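Q: I'm writing up a methods section and want to include an example of the input and output format. Could you take the sequence below and give the corresponding predicted structure tokens, formatted cleanly so I can copy it straight into the document?
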Amino acid sequence: MKVSKVKVFMCPQTTCTLMAESKIKYRFVLPKNVYCGGQTIKGQLHIESPSPVLLSNLQVRLRGRAKVQLVREENGTTRTLYQTQTYLDKRLGVQDMQRLPESDNLPQGTGLFAFEFLLPPGLPPSFTSPLGGWPICGDTIFQMGLVEEDYIISQCGFLCYCLDLLRRDRGREVIRFRQLIHIITRPSLGVDASASQPVERELHHARHWFCCVASKDILFKAWLDQPEVIMGDKIPFHAEITNNSDIFVKSSYITLIATWVFHAMDETEVKSEKIKSFKKVKRCAIPPGESMTWGDNDEPLVLPADLTPTGPPNCSIMEVSYELSFTVVPRGMFSSMKVRLPITATFGLTQSDRERLAAETSHGNA
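A: Here is the clean output for your methods example:
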């Protein structure tokens, strides 16, 4: 008859009386918290307990998942629309992990177990949308008595990667400890073809007539040299404003707009917002008969480095796009003129990064 072996982590100088689960402390120790697809997460699980812990009931899970939750109020009733998309779900049994020697720097009775997870390439990055929401972490989720799907009750939209310590409890899995892992898209070490060969984007023209007389008009046009911009890099924006009217153009300015689209149970919600981390740039007045240009010699427009990339790649339940909003404001009671230029935000090496790498390479070859 085959006898299965059940591993038990025995803490030193203790009796064999099992303590209450709430007295046991778990935590993950990682060398870093930010990774790219294709890299390996190497870490340790620390279990601090003065009594035996049944390892066969414990698993470490690495999971990446997007979640959209929309709340609808209709005729006095509330409907919750829920959609998820899973990108990664890997597990390791704690009893199968390598047991490491105890450390004098840790509390007595702490067991150390090593684990590794290989991240597949092409993973979408971690992000939080304007709907907000984020998983409860640490051991708070266990202390609150929550199961994994109960941690958010309002609207949310996010994509996250979590290391979970799971424990089997009466036929169900309980998250005993959780730690977030931040995933970013690996920057390309080369120069993007679209960046090395600027192609003028379709010109966006706007014309506003104040009356039927052709001599009293304001004309402006705005364009981007290339549609894709690396987050943290300069935006190649240009504009020309010609004031052929008999009034002043009070000002012109640029803002960055993000538009999110959320999908849950065949319903869609759209949300637009100004990006607060984008530095709004404003120019002064243009007298009648004069003109103004925006270009390379002006204060640079920088695409914020903290954006969620356009797409984001491989995520089908949330979409984000960006537009530069260029506004010209005539003085008086006349309406402002506005055009929006689509812009694609991507990960990559910024111009300053490429210059630094080139300098380091030339210095190393010298």
